[in-house]
Amino acid sequence: MSYMSDLSQSNEYLSFRSSIPLRKIVVDSDGSKAWRIFDSGPKSVRCPLICLPPVSGTADVFFMQVMGLASRGVRVIAAEPPPYWNMKEWIDGFKRLIDYLELDRVHIYGASLGGFMAQKFAELTRNCPRVASLVLCNTFTDTSVFEYNDSSALFWLLPSLVLKRMLMGNFTTDKVDKRIAESIDFMVERLESLNQSELASRLTLNCSPCYIQPHILNDMPITIMDVWDESALSSRVREDLYKSYPQAKLAHLKSGGNFPYLSRSDEVNLHLLIHLRQFDGTELSSSYLSLVPQPKSGNNSEQASVSYFNQRDKFVKIS
Q1: Which of 45, 117, 224, 276 is least enclosed by beta carbons within 10 angstroms?
Q2: Mean pLDDT score of the chain, rounded to an integer?
Q3: Averaged over 247-269, what is the pLDDT?
Q4: What is the DSSP string of the chain?
């Protein structure tokens, strides 16, 4: 690859790649499809946080969550699926991955398509629950919001260059700050690394007619994380997500673009920690340490800038 983004040359990313191995796990009977994962944190934790990427992302787009949360004792698994062409294939493959890793249940942080698949997995495994909670980032509940919905069955025919151009249209670089620009560069670099079948299968899942039945997930702890600045999803899509989960907590970021887990990693990690704190001391804990902050004299900076909005309660300041 002739061009390397600033983030891929950063000390944090280089440290991530040198300290946490990329694992390829084959869970399908034909042996041709391998999940790619980065697994960090104590393996004794049986209910980790699994991060699922968007269409254009690879597992390492969550390197700041893997590194940042592992330092707090949280087991984080960044997972990238092999090419799956329909919902059943993906659900069955993810279920086998969880079984292979000998996990009881999982918390899922899903971005865009990753968030949609997380919701669908939780919905379709409700009779034998495998999902403990969801954190949904810039995601949706109905694939009909995408313009290629009617032609999704033809993606497998298109060359990778055409598929990449379709996705690049969502990568705006106008009037963004340095960190957002760096996140876009990094995602473009990751997009270039994907082959035709990976891109076509993900776009097929993203645009094939499908929707979530949110009432099935009403009892599940859910946090909706989104940005207030410009992103690929319209305000109507975000409002539909809020209405689908009136019990969910909302974690707002003032800015961050399409990829806040890269451009606003400190804020995203803090929201993830706050979400996971509710499971402290239970069998669903994602960490071997307590995530509840201990009182410190003269230093409350960690919680000073974070706020939550519970749609059933009033505005709550985390302090």
Answers
A1: 45
A2: 87
A3: 94
A4: -----TGGGSHHHHHHHHHS-EEEEE-STTS--EEEEEEES-TT-SS-EEEE--TT--GGGGHHHHHHHHTTTB-EEEEE-----SHHHHHHHHHHHHHHTT-S-EEEEEETHHHHHHHHHHHHTTTS--EEEEEEES--SBGGGSTTGGGGGGGGGS-HHHHHHHHHTT---TT--HHHHHHHHHHHHHHHH--HHHHHHHHHHHHSS-B--GGGGTTS-EEEEEESS--SS-HHHHHHHHHH-TT-EEEEES--TT-HHHHTHHHHHHHHHHHHHTTTTSTT-SBSS--SPPP-TT--HHHHT-EEEESSS-EEE--
**Tens of pLDDT along 134-175?**
999 999 999 988 766 556 667 777 778 887 887 776 666 567
Residue with tokens 């079984």: 99
Q: What average pLDDT does range 41-45 have in this prediction?
A: 93
Q: Which two tokens stand for residue 189?
A: 């670099």
| CA–CA separation, 175 and 162 (whole Å) | 26
